[in-house]
TrEMBL record, chain A:
Keywords: 4Fe-4S, Electron transport, Iron, Iron-sulfur, Metal-binding, Repeat, Transport. GO terms for biological process: lactate metabolic process. The lineage of its organism: Bacteria, Pseudomonadati, Pseudomonadota, Alphaproteobacteria, Acetobacterales. Coiled coil: none annotated. It comes from the Bacteria. PANTHER family: LACTATE UTILIZATION PROTEIN B. Residues 340-367 form the 4Fe-4S ferredoxin-type domain. GO terms for molecular function: 4 iron, 4 sulfur cluster binding; metal ion binding. This is 4Fe-4S ferredoxin. Residues 1-46 are annotated as: Disordered. Residues 14-23 have a biased composition (Basic and acidic residues). InterPro entries: 4Fe4S_Fe-S-bd, 4Fe4S_Fe_S_CS, FTHF_cligase-like_sf, Helical_ferredxn, LUD_dom, LutB/LldF, LutB_C, NagB/RpiA_transferase-like.
UniProtKB/TrEMBL annotation, chain B:
This is LUD domain-containing protein. It comes from Komagataeibacter swingsii. InterPro entries: FTHF_cligase-like_sf, LUD_dom, NagB/RpiA_transferase-like. SUPFAM superfamilies: NagB/RpiA/CoA transferase-like. Gene3D superfamilies: NagB/RpiA/CoA transferase-like (3.40.50.10420). It comes from the Bacteria.
Length: 508, 198
C-alpha cells in the first residue's frame, strides 16, 4: 500500500529561541497586578446556571480577563502555526472525522473487540452504566487491595463522575498529579479547561493556594519556585500510593490498547508506580485499528496546544509484571447521546480544547462561568445531554461565529449544534423567561410587516431621544457591556420610498 | 441483565443506521531524499530535548562522563556502566533516588523528535520517569519518518507498555511559563550511537 505524499520534514525549522512544546506560551505573558480571583458560576440545586452573571464577575477582574484571553489566544495561534506546517492537515481532519463516525456507528462491535483483546492480554474489563456504578466499581477494587491512597492523572470522565468527592466520603485519599489539576484540587475548585485546568488563575492565585495548603512562601509567586514546590510535595505521595488511576485519550480495538497523552509524565508515574493500575474510559474513545491512531495523535496536541505531540504518548496493552490492570468502560449518557439525530457526532470529540481557545465568549468569561464539567463550545452541546434544565441557558453563551467548528480536529459542526440546542430547548419550554417573552414578541412583530416597519421607525427614533438609563438597563441585555450603535437617520423603507424608481410597487 | 449487556443493548438500539465506511489511512511519506536524521534533531530540540555537543570526542565517552559525574546512576545499556542494578523484581518506587538513568530507544520518529521506550528497554517502567535526568541512546539507522510509519512497528503489538517520549517532563500550567521536570525527568539527553548488534 503506497500512501499519499506528506509534507517536507526539513522545511520551516522552528526558531531556536522559541521552543514550542507542551503548553508553554510563545510570547512573554505575565500578570502584574494582584487581584482577587473571580469564582465560577453560582450552583443552586437544579436551577439553570446563569453563565452571564459569572462571566460579568470574571470581566470585572481585568487582570484575570486579560491574561486568560491572551494565554488562550496564544495557544490558538500556536495551533495555527502547526497546522500551516503540515501539508496534509485537512486530510487528517477528514480522516479523523470519518474514522470516528465509522467507529460510533459500529460502536458495539468495536467495544466487544477491545474487550476481547484486552482480556486476552490480561486486562480486567469492567462496565459502568453511570457515575455511581463507576465510583462503586473502583471503590470495591480499592477496598479489595486495602488501598488508602490513590494517585491519579487528569481525567474529565472522573470529573463527570464526581469521583474525588465520592472517594473523600469513602475515606480514600486521592492525589491529583497533574500540576494544574493539583492546583484545582488544593483550591477545591473544578478544572476550568479540559487541557489547562488552572488557566483562569494568575501566579498570585496559585501562590496563595500553595501557601495555604502546602506551606509555601506566600510572597513568592515565581512560577519555577511554585512548580518545584509542587514536585517536591507530591513526589512522596506518589511513591507510597497503593493504586494509580488514569483516563484514556484513545482506545484501539484491534490491539486491546489504551493510550494516554500527557506533558508531565504524571500518567506514566500514576500507572507505573503502584502495583494496582486502573483506567476510567468513556465508551466513545474506541477507534478500530492501530493505523488509525497516528491520525489522532498527530492532531491532538497540535490542536490543543500548538505542540507537535505531547511529551509523553503512553500505550498500555497489558498489566506490568507483578501488577494488576483494570479498565472501567463508562457509558454515563453516551449511549443515549448516540441516538440523538442532531447531536450524536458530538461523541467524536477528542477533548483537545481548541474550540475553547478560539471562542471569544470562553476567553473572556473563564471556564468556571459555565458551571458544568465541560465548558466552552463543546460544553454547550454536551452539558444539556446530562441535564437539560440546569444547562438550559448555556447554548445561548455563544456568538455562533463558527470558529469552533473551523478549528475542531474531528470536524464536529459545533456552532450548528449550538443553534440546534437553542431550538430544542425552545420547543421543550426550557427557555429562560426573559428570552421567552422577547421571542414571543419578536415573533409577532416579524410576522406582521406593517407592524414591524412602524416598530423599527419608532425604535430608531426612540433610541435617538431616550435617556441612557432607558437603553442601558437590566431588562435590555443588548445594552450590557456594549454600546448600542447609533440609529440611522431614516429606515431602509423610508429611503426606498423616497428613492425607488417610479412605476414600481411597494417592495415585498 | 448485566451493565455490560445493558450498555451494549442501548448502543445497538441507538447507533445511527448510516453508511460510514472505514477510510484507508495513507502514510503521508515525506518527499524522497528527506534527511531523517536532520529532521529528527530539529524536532527533538524543539520538544525540549538536549543533544549534547560531543565535538571531536566519542559520544560514548561524553555520555560515560555525564553518568560518572552523578552520585546514583542506573544504566540499561551494556556500553555504559551505572552503580544501581535493576532486576525484574525491583520495586518501581525504589528508583526515586536515581540521579541519572540510561536507556536505549527501540526507534525514533523524525516528525516529532520522539523516542520509543518499551518495558524491555526500561526493565522497570519507572526508569523513564523517576530519575532526575535521562540519557537515551538512539541508533540513527532506526529513525522512521512520521507517526504513520511509527505505528507500523512491531513493538505496539507485542509490548504491554510502550511510550513515545518527546523531550523531558514539561508543564506550563501556571501562566504559560514553561518548566521542565514537572513530575518526571528534568532533562532528556540523546546520543546517536549505533546498536552493538546492528
Amino acid at each position: 500500500m503506497s500512501g499519499a505524499q506528506g509534507g517536507d520534514l526539513n522545511r520551516n525549522p522552528p526558531r531556536p529561541d522559541r521552543l514550542d512544546h507542551a503548553e508553554g506560551a510563545s510570547v512573554p505573558l505575565r500578570s502584574h497586578v494582584r487581584e482577587a480571583q473571580p469564582r465560577g458560576a453560582v450552583i443552586n440545586g437544579n436551577h439553570p446556571i446563569d453563565q452571564a452573571e459569572a462571566a460579568e464577575r470574571f470581566i470585572a477582574a481585568p487582570e484575570h480577563e486579560r491574561m486568560h484571553d491572551a494565554r488562550l489566544w496564544d495557544l490558538r495561534q500556536k495551533r495555527d502555526r502547526q497546522m500551516h506546517g503540515i501539508a496534509e492537515w485537512e486530510d487528517l481532519r477528514r480522516l479523523a472525522s470519518e474514522i470516528k463516525e465509522h467507529a460510533l456507528t459500529h460502536l458495539d462491535h468495536y467495544l466487544e473487540q477491545f474487550e476481547a483483546n484486552a482480556r486476552a492480554n490480561g486486562i480486567h474489563v469492567h462496565w459502568a452504566q453511570d457515575a455511581d456504578e463507576h465510583n462503586a466499581i473502583i471503590l470495591s477494587l480499592l477496598r479489595d487491595h486495602s488501598v488508602k491512597r490513590l494517585i491519579k492523572s487528569k481525567s474529565m470522565l472522573t470529573e463527570e463522575c464526581g469521583f474525588r468527592d465520592f472517594m473523600a466520603e469513602s475515606g480514600i485519599e486521592v492525589v491529583e498529579t497533574d500540576l494544574g489539576e493539583r492546583i484545582q484540587q488544593l483550591d477545591d475548585e473544578a478544572p476550568s479547561h479540559v487541557v489547562v485546568p488552572a488557566v483562569h488563575k494568575l501566579r498570585s492565585d496559585v501562590a496563595a493556594v500553595f501557601a495555604r495548603t502546602l506551606g509555601t512562601d506566600p510572597d513568592d509567586d515565581d512560577v519555577h519556585y511554585l512548580t518545584e514546590q509542587q514536585r517536591e510535595k507530591t513526589r512522596p505521595l506518589i511513591l507510597d500510593a497503593q493504586a494509580g488511576l488514569t483516563g484514556a485519550n484513545f482506545v484501539v480495538a484491534e490491539t486491546g490498547t489504551f493510550v494516554v497523552c500527557t506533558n508531565e509524565g504524571n500518567a506514566d508515574l500514576s500507572a507505573n508506580t503502584p502495583s494496582l493500575q486502573i483506567a476510567s474510559i468513556g465508551i466513545e474513545k474506541v477507534i478500530p485499528r492501530l493505523e488509525d491512531l497516528p491520525v489522532f495523535v498527530r492532531l491532538l496536541s497540535r490542536s490543543a496546544l500548538g505542540s507537535p505531540i505531547t511529551q509523553y504518548t503512553s500505550h498500555f496493552r497489558g498489566p506490568r509484571r507483578g501488577g494488576e490492570l483494570h479498565v472501567v468502560l463508562v457509558d454515563n449518557g453516551r449511549s443515549e447521546r448516540l441516538g440523538m439525530e442532531q447531536f450524536w457526532t458530538s461523541l467524536k470529540c477528542i477533548r483537545c480544547g481548541a474550540c475553547m481557545n478560539t471562542c471569544p465568549v470562553f476567553r473572556r468569561s473563564g471556564g468556571l462561568s459555565y458551571g458544568a464539567t465541560y465548558a466552552g463550545p463543546i460544553g454547550l452541546i454536551i452539558d444539556p445531554t446530562f441535564n437539560r434544565h440546569r444547562y438550559s441557558s448555556l447554548p445561548f453563551s455563544s456568538t455562533l461565529n463558527g470558529s469552533c467548528t473551523n478549528v475542531c480536529p474531528v470536524r464536529i459542526n459545533i456552532h450548528e449544534q449550538i443553534a440546534g440546542w437553542r431550538k430544542v430547548l425552545a420547543e421543550t419550554h426550557e427557555l429562560p423567561l426573559m428570552k421567552k417573552v422577547m421571542m414571543r414578541e419578536a415573533g409577532h412583530l416579524l410576522s406582521h410587516p406593517a407592524l414591524y416597519r412602524a416598530a423599527i421607525a419608532t425604535a430608531d427614533s426612540a433610541l435617538k431621544h431616550l435617556p441612557r438609563f432607558m437603553v442601558y438597563n437590566r431588562l435590555n441585555t443588548w445594552g450590557h457591556g456594549r454600546e448600542v450603535p447609533a440609529p440611522p437617520r431614516q429606515t431602509f423603507h423610508e429611503w426606498y420610498a423616497k428613492n425607488r424608481p417610479t412605476g414600481q410597487g411597494e417592495p415585498t | 441483565m448485566s451493565s455490560r449487556e445493558d450498555i451494549l443493548a442501548r448502543v445497538r438500539a441507538h447507533k445511527p443506521a448510516l453508511e460510514r465506511p472505514l477510510p484507508q489511512v495513507p502514510f503521508f511519506d515525506p518527499p524522497q531524499g528527506t534527511d531523517l536524521l536532520a529532521a529528527f534533531r530539529t524536532a527533538f530540540v524543539q520538544m525540549g530535548g538536549t543533544l549534547p555537543d560531543c565535538g571531536p570526542d566519542d559520544p560514548l565517552d561524553v555520555a560515560r562522563a555525564m553518568v560518572a559525574g552523578m552520585p546514583v546512576s542506573c544504566s540499561r545499556v551494556p556500553e555504559i556502566r551505572g552503580n544501581r542494578v535493576l532486576t525484574d523484581d525491583t520495586p518501581p518506587a525504589s528508583l526515586a533516588d536515581i540521579d541519572i538513568g540510561v536507556v536505549r530507544a527501540s526507534f525514533g520518529v523524525a516528525e516529532t523528535g520522539s523516542v520509543c521506550l518499551t518495558e524491555v528497554d526500561l526493565q522497570v517502567n519507572t526508569l523513564g520517569y523517576l530519575p532526575q535526568h535521562l540519557i537515551v541512546l538512539l541508533d540513527p539507522a532506526r529513525i522512521v519518518s512520521n507517526l504513520h510509519r511509527a505505528y507500523q512497528r512491531p513493538e505496539w503489538r507485542s509490548m504491554h507498555y510502550a511510550v513515545l517520549q518527546s523531550g523531558p517532563s514539561a508543564t506550563a500550567d501556571i501562566e504559560g511559563v514553561l518548566v521542565h521536570g514537572a513530575q518526571g525527568v528534568r532533562s532528556l539527553r540523546l546520543f546517536f550511537i549505533p546498536a552493538p548488534n546492528g
